[in-house]
Amino acid sequence: MLKRILSLLSLLIAINYSIAQDAQPALLADAVSYDIPSKIINNQIRISVSLPMGYNKNSPKKYPVLYVLDAYYSFPIIHELHKMMAGEIEPVIIVGIGDDRISLQEWLITRYPILTHDKDAYEDSYHSNNMKVNLVSGNGQNYYNAIKNEVIPFIEANYSTNADRGMVGHSLSGLFTSHVLFKDNGYFTRFGINSAALFVNNDEPFKLEKEFFESKKQLTGKVFISAAGLEGDKIFVNRANRLSNILKSRNYNSLKVDSYIFPDESHVSVVGAMLSRSLYSLYGLQVDRSIGKGHKANN
After folding, report:
1. Where are the beta strands (DSSP E) in the chain?
2. CA distance 207 to 235
3. Do 144 and 178 meet the contact criterion of CB atoms below 8 Å apart?
4. Each residue of 144-164: b (16+ CB within 10 Å) or e?
5. For residue 66, which of 293, 287, 261, 276 has the smallest C-alpha distance?
6. Rounded distance, CA 186 to CA 221, Å?
7. Which H, E and C letters describe 229-272, residue by residue?
8. CB neighbours of 290 closer than 8 A, spacing ≥ 6?
9. Integer Cα distance of 289 and 101 in angstroms
10. Of 158, 215, 159, whose CA–CA distance to 183 is shortest?
């Protein structure tokens, strides 16, 4: 009888423990998401918003906004960096653009057409063969139009923003950001171009830069350009350095260009580092960033 009672008690404890340990979705504290219907691309655009510390919608204070592409992986990282770096950067609203509820395969397939502005038969063939699915480039301008005419108006209608807009991208979204730099400079004035696929369509961003320079217009704002040391000199590092050097050589009066090559980082491992560096390069405050003042180990 005692054995039976003990067995029943053990079973009840096990049941209660399993109920208490049911998996729950992981959430990002202090972040919210919206699905913005887009008539331009005939789909929804998922966005996520990270607010600066002390944000008060009833305050007259207006904030710059940083739009971060490829939010599938970039937003969770930059949202947490946003909190940790609060004392080192200007207060800024961060908006991630991209769906975080899809699989890795879905993300890789859906991002390719919308982050490429130009049709490139070679790149289409290369990526289609690697992904085992038919991919067609060249819908980037429509995607940008949707961001500018549907996403940004929503943010500016619902949050306390000013006209200071930035964009950060990595890989194909770094390529996308480079197009925005030359095609809509002034509307956006802060740009993070990281590990960008600048080689697409026979180095198209360099052609855009040359056309812009020859138009006698002035580039304005801040640009941060980076690459990872393990990505390879020919395809990424040399092009990042080349774009940085060209922009610096133009001597634009109102353009600040910063660049960095992250040693011993790969195309994927660099993401956290390039996001934190982009934040500081584009929004950094001139403050003492050291720690440990007054600690005995620092004497």
Report:
1. 31-38, 43-50, 63-68, 93-97, 161-170, 190-194, 220-228, 254-262
2. 17
3. no
4. bebbbebbbeebeeebbbeeb
5. 276
6. 8
7. HHHCHHHHHHHHHHHHHHHHHCCCCEEEEEEEEECCCCCCCCHH
8. none
9. 36
10. 215
Are 233 and 199 a contacting pair, CB within 8 Å? no
Question: For every one of its 299 residues, what pLDDT tens digit does the chain have, with 9 covering 90 and above?
Answer: 556 655 666 665 655 555 556 777 777 888 999 999 999 999 999 999 999 999 998 899 999 999 999 999 999 999 999 999 999 999 999 999 998 888 888 888 888 888 999 898 988 898 898 888 898 888 899 999 999 999 999 999 999 999 999 999 999 999 999 999 999 999 999 999 999 999 999 999 999 999 999 999 999 999 999 999 999 999 999 999 999 999 999 999 999 999 999 999 999 999 999 999 999 999 999 999 998 888 888 88
CA distance readout (Å), 22 to 18, 19, 71: 6, 5, 28
Distance CA 207, CA 52 (A): 37
Q: Domains in the chain, ordered, with CATH?
A: 31-71+92-111+122-136+146-165 (3.40.50.1820), 184-265 (no CATH)
> Two tokens at 225?
């350009």
For residue 75, give the DSSP letter.
Answer: H
CA gyration radius for the chain? 23
Comparing CA positions, the residue from 74, 69, 96, 81 lying closest to residue 284 is 81
pTM of the model: 0.91
